[in-house]
Amino acid sequence: PYQETRTGGSTRLSVPIRTAFVDQNFGLTYSATVFHTRLPIPDDLDPEASPTQKPEDGFLSEVRVSYGIDASEGGIDSAGKKRGISLRVGASVADELLGGTTSLYAFDFNAGAYASMPWPGEQTVAVRAAGAISAGAYARRGVYFVGGYDLENTNPIDLLIDGVYDGAFVLRGYPATSYAGSAYLLSTFEYRVPVWKTDWGPSTVPIYWRRFDTSFFADWGGAFNELDLEETAFFEDGDIIHVPGLHTSIGMELWFGLTLAHRVDTSLKLGYAYGTSKEAEPWGQVYFLANSSF
């Protein structure tokens, strides 16, 4: 394996269009990235091993266009959003014509849907699907990574203040960046249950506990170079739908909604996730972090 260091910057032009119930956004982004690779030489060289080639260093000059629409809404009694849909699509182009030394062409999407249950309790179902595909010389390095939360390399203060977004690349119950490839697909199903609106704080201490909720979830996805749909099978290898390259996890989370210093709203999550593939954490994964839901 080789090590790659990326240094870059970006600038973005955004045009929001907001109405009473629907928000739209058009974006144009330019980013410049210098990447440098290092190939460590092990102490115990194997003369029978196949030779390893060091990837080239270079410069990535990329232009991205994106569009997003959000027609979802929340509520004071629900855990997260309670109804509606959201969608984001984007396309990126990096090429020598833009001043770079390599090429990358990518398309990505992220869609979510939310529905309230018809029975009492303000319970909701949240579903998300996200994916991307890439091509070009740089795509051969493995552009996308899918796996669990990278808690070991995250500062606790950053977790508390900035949070960890429960984004499109999170496959709970697996080590961070378990899978890599030129494409990825990930879907999430969550059943969210409000438990208690606590509305409590310890005297004048600047910590206010607003609410307590639970969530039951299932994640399904992975990163890959090719997806063999012909090998699809049902109820095989611990999966309801088994597709080579896609992996499953199930679990539960406890959500603690807090307000810190009278200004910073955050959500602490205590969760357990169990992955069904061999690359998953052997006994499941327990995590506690500050997190934003989709």
- Strand fraction equals over 45%
Structural class: mainly beta
Poorly predicted runs are: none
Cα radius of gyration in angstroms: 21 Å
Task: Give me the number of helical elements.
Answer: 1
Q: In one word, what is the shape? A: globular
Q: How many beta-strand runs?
A: 17
Please tell me the overall pLDDT. Answer: 86
Largest sheet features: 13 strands, mixed
Give the terminus-to-terminus CA distance. Answer: 34 Å
Percent of residues in helices comes to under 10%
Element order, helices and strands? Answer: EEEEEEEEHEEEEEEEEE
Briefly summarize what is shown.
With 294 residues, this protein is mainly β.
What are the defining features of this structure?
294 residues; two-stranded antiparallel ribbon; 13-stranded mixed sheet; mainly beta; globular
